[in-house]
Write a structure and sequence with these properties.
The structure is a homotetramer. Chain A is about 50% helix and about 10% strand. Chain A is α+β, with helices and mostly antiparallel strands and about 300 residues long. In chain A, strands 2-1-8-7-6 form a 5-stranded antiparallel beta sheet. In chain A, α6 (about 130-145) packs parallel to α9 (about 180-190) and α7 (about 150-160) packs across α9 (about 180-190). The interface of A and B includes residues 100, 164, 169, 171 and 173 of A. Chains A, B, C, D: Pfam families: Glutaminase.
């Protein structure tokens, strides 16, 4: 496994040239686009890792999984899915037009920005800090790493430049889908800026692969919620490239514009990948290729 | 003329029951939906008026004409129309989706909210107050009424509830079409809350009917800009009912969600109407009927 | 006038290089893109013309005016406008998506293809030939030229290649907006292929400029229908460049993808232009420039 | 298993009242909306069935799986997916607007009508009959039932009423995505009208559950194609309710507007369901509930 991971990193790292780092968030634009790292953790706790697996990066859209789980634990499926749908969209993650043309103030799923903003509005807590802290806390538990915290520079950078997300949030408020724009976005930007490395991601993946039970055997997520979230990873986890990823790679995964991908093989392993050079749809260009190669070599597709 | 106006007010006032006042701006929701007023001014200065012609109301979208003229005087046609188009849209005034699906950060025309926000961003001045004051000043000059000012309660009400306009403004900022959301919107809300009555509107209409020269003979708008604005009144002045209004009434007109309509007959008269009960597209339901009747009785259509 | 027209043709002909002939209809693609012609007729019958004013071309979208008048004479305003709207759209002439996203089987106006197809379905007659013949007959009467007929090669060429129009027609049939696709399209293609020259167009324009009365003083169109059609020419006559044309030129006009433009100055003159090099929106690139120059030189704008 | 199936049929049959049979195809409108049947086949060949499992119905959209497999065997992945995408859309199956607004003549996936029409155009054969026969032949082999054939009344009914599919096909032809509308649609309507019962569907499902090997052990589909098709079943198999079905049921499935659903549990069983009362998205209302209950009782979700 160790050798396989090292060879995959070597093989796919050059493809970084074909992509580029997210530029609309100034802090993310500073990342070194050439990096590529991967870590794999199995249920026995064996860790294999290669490349830039110790480089830290922010969760970005990967946090949509975590906030969805917190909201589901807070309110249950029925209330959450009264406010956000379950359907993939085929549109870019920051798209807005469907909210207008369908005249329904219900984002199609919680993995696009509009849906994730609605989910963040549902997280309970006395303050924005407390609400964000609850998301961070679940990340710590899933990764079994109490030191995980947010990256304040990225948080501020996002907060100050998030025009499109503010457009989405005000549109949603205008439709009655959320109550408070700045508070909701503050929770959202905080969760996006949670900072991890590939090993953290791999442990989080293992927790989902074990239906909510961590490496140390602690249940931190109810089984049905873990299952539900894995399903969203398959149908909408890779933005509007999810369908192709399901066909070519075939494992539950969620990407972020920082270049991270949290993936897993049910019952068998958690996987963390980091490669900040992105393709046009916002996914790690090297990360996707590494995962496709890895999945095909080991026959990991769930299909 | 006096009798005609009085009979038209009597005849069309009952239709107010079929409409309702704008409710998304709390201050506008307080208006008495049953009111209907009209004033007509001719080049000799004769004023005829009937009904609630002395009731004051805010310009709302009628101010889009005025800010467009200020921006054109500040920058010239070429620069303004590099940022906003000249085409009617067929969509509601607060629509956003076309900006996304055409991937062009250029609102189709300056009479829809997105376009008017871009226009407001172009008005010169050292501060928001000064920029808005320049719009108010042109209104005063057109109406020959130095007492015209903004209604601060409506201004604050709009500023605090304008979710959809903020969504538009952040979307436009995200595309690079405007620089500062809150400053631009502040100018925009101020111009929308300029407070007039039917006689003011009629005098403003006369000024346009005389291609920029007021009742007292003062040129306050260059002739080519007055002409250009009258053209927009015909093609996009009545929201996405402009085409029907052109056919049924046939005179340049611009409506606002306060229930006001500024209309004119080139060279012959300025017309101000106020009827706050709106139809589904946001136009005064009684105002449109009164104008259609008036236009047909006197054969005023320019077509 | 004669000298003016000749100088305008010379001045604007070179711009043909910036456009190109319609290529999606094979017969139209054969036209010489460098041609430019213009004819003007006044109420006294004086004809001035320059350039390729004797070259024959097909009406294409200009026929939408004629079929609308026939349908209005057949059914009256109320029935026709129950099936097709009065609003400009901002979209390309062959656009379909708004029919789907608004879920209303009512094209926004009769000057886009979808609307014109619905109008063609309303023209009465015992056969397709008779229905088309009624449109041709009105063209003959307006132009006072009994020899006008359709160009069969263009008709067949359109009929055999009209994929997008067939898509529109089947979509409309699926919504219940028309009954028979091939019959309706056959009327539509026949009217599009009516063959005229600039002098014919200018006489047709004069007939509208005189509210339905021909050069020889014969009323061939009711006055209110002529007025209505002139209004559509201003709001939607130049595809999704109508708003700009109203501002820059300011006279009622209707273009076709053959390169023809029928224009008029109310009460004063009819104008026929032919320049087959088209801009991206489907209007004659030389024709628009010539008309803008002509209108500005003579101060013809109705605004 | 037998008792379970019988109890599920009894329990869920009454929900048929909440849906209705497809009405836009006259022959389908004749179906008895109260029927509900199910059949399950395991790798040992045990068949369990209940309710209307012997009633015959047409494949409709279920045939999109089969034609995709034939096209993939004819051309390989690369060529097929150059013409049709892999992404779920969130839109209704007969939607067209995205083809226009994205200006890309590539339907988002082969499970929506636009995509399936493109796929049908790729199936090789000397005639329409031969091309359709190849699809039917693969159905026969998967179901191990040489008597399967098309229902000619349904075929003719679809062919004669398919306005929206013709609109899609002409639009696609206009974009260059297909060459011949009527031939392509003829193949498409023929494949849609292939007639089966629940046991046939269950055997076809088992063939996919065994990655392309039939009950009798015959390989009729390459393994990688079977896997690919199962992935599409998960991401886009249940129209724009696929995301919700993945969460609530969690097994690969494909529905048709006849009320049939082909489903499977990888390696374990094939499932055929028939319940012609449809919900608003076009899926069998009783069929979905039965499958959800069945999946939860036996813990079949792949997630």
């Amino acid at each position: 496994m160790q050798k396989l991971l090292e060879s995959l990193v070597e093989k796919h790292r050059p493809a970084a040239r074909e992509g580029k780092v997210a530029e609309y968030i100034p802090e993310l634009a500073k990342q070194d686009s050439r990096l590529l790292g991967v870590a794999v953790v199995n249920p026995k706790g064996d860790v294999h890792a290669a490349g830039a697996y110790r480089t830290r990066f922010t969760l970005q859209s990967i946090s949509k999984l975590i906030s969805l789980m917190v909201a589901l634990m807070d309110h249950g499926e029925e209330r959450v899915f009264a406010k956000v749908g379950m359907e993939p969209t085929g549109d870019p993650f920051h798209s807005l037009y469907k909210l207008e043309i369908t005249e329904e103030a219900k984002p199609l799923n919680p993995m696009i920005n509009a849906g994730a903003i609605v989910v963040s509005s549902l997280i309970r807590g006395k303050s924005v800090e407390e609400r964000a802290e609850r998301v961070i806390q679940l990340v710590r538990e899933m990764a079994d790493n109490p030191e995980i915290d947010m990256n304040r520079a990225v948080y501020r950078s996002e907060r100050d430049t998030a025009d499109r997300n503010r457009a989405l949030a005000y549109f949603l408020k205008g439709c009655g889908a959320i109550d408070d724009v700045e508070e909701t976005l503050d929770v959202y930007f905080r969760q996006c800026s949670i900072c991890v490395d590939c090993i953290d991601l791999a442990r989080m993946g293992l927790c989902l692969a074990q239906n909510g039970v961590t490496l140390r055997g602690k249940r931190v997520i109810p089984g049905d919620i873990a299952r539900l979230v894995k399903t969203f990873m398959v149908t909408c986890g890779m933005y509007n490239a999810s369908g192709e990823f399901a066909i070519r790679v075939g494992i539950p995964a969620k990407s972020g514009v920082s270049g991270g991908i949290l993936a897993l093989v049910p019952g068998r392993m958690g996987i963390g990948v980091f490669g900040p050079a992105l393709d046009k749809k916002g996914n790690s260009i090297t990360g996707i290729r590494l995962l496709e190669d890895f999945s095909k070599k080991l026959g990991l597709s769930i299909f």
